[in-house]
Amino acid sequence: MTERTYENILVETRPGSGANALSYGWITLNRPKALNALNDGLMDELGEALLAFDADDTVACIVVTGSEKAFAAGADILVMHPFDFPNAFRKGLISRNWDTIRQVRKPIIAAVSGFALGGGCEVAMACDFIIAADNARFGQPEIKLGIIPGAGGTQRLPRAVGKSKAMDLALTGRMMDATEAERAGLVSRVVPLAELHAEATKAAEAMCGYSLLALMATKESVDRAFESPLSEGLLFERRLFHALFSSADQKEGMGAFLEKRAPGFTHR
Ligand code: CAA
Fold first, then answer.
1. Global pTM value
2. What does this protein do (predicted)?
3. Residue 2 domain flag
């Protein structure tokens, strides 16, 4: 990946562990004074870094994290305050650079500690799964600002936690702690704060040892579950499942199992 200095994020490529392992991307949201409030500069950079990792054949997956105190406390209220409708509409407020994350075909893990509020919760939900520290707090407090969630909060949250809890959070603006978020299905695992990065690393390293084709096909197929009726989703899955039998990685993965050795995937 081309080295580039960013102003609002920190970006690293980290090696996976084990022979033949791919690398993984590590992106830290880094506007500490504003609790990582998401302004245009940060979202442009996040999109650019995600797309660069997505295009890098040596990278299997990406971790997005924030600080201990805040994954991100939402879209930048200082920036949004003066907008009127014509400007919001014409300039694509909270859309143009926020939608980039949806173009990424490799798995993205959100490693969340502290506040993940408003746009922060929405960015975490746009990732593929969330690992939370025990101090994480999720919420859609836009109602307190006289607006509604604008980056998927009213759509992804009910899909993740069901209608009742999504309505509760978006209508009252209350925060949900990590335990409640795990119970509700928003996050996949909760770990002590001190172990968050190690846990995200472990998950990323596991993926670095797998076939990139299979990782990307898995992501595409699970995402399809939210876009199609069951019969169409099952057909889509079956087509991808059959397609993978034309890959060298399928022969290698199954061959290695039968020969009782570790597989060496070539991502072909
Ligand atoms: N935008 C801009 N600045 C923000 C911010 C945000 N979303 N969240 C926090 N900050 C700034 C604060 O203004 C403060 O700056 P100053 O030091 O210059 O005063 C700094 O970050 C630290 O914040 P606090 O002093 O408020 O810290 P706290 O620990 O007392 O409270 C908090 C933390 C509860 C997260 C509180 O900061 C807060 O409520 N933030 C706003 C949360 C919010 O409403 N998010 C939704 C935004 S709208 C949105 O995201 C729309 C969408 O759907 C995309």
1. 0.97
2. Could possibly oxidize fatty acids using specific components.
3. no
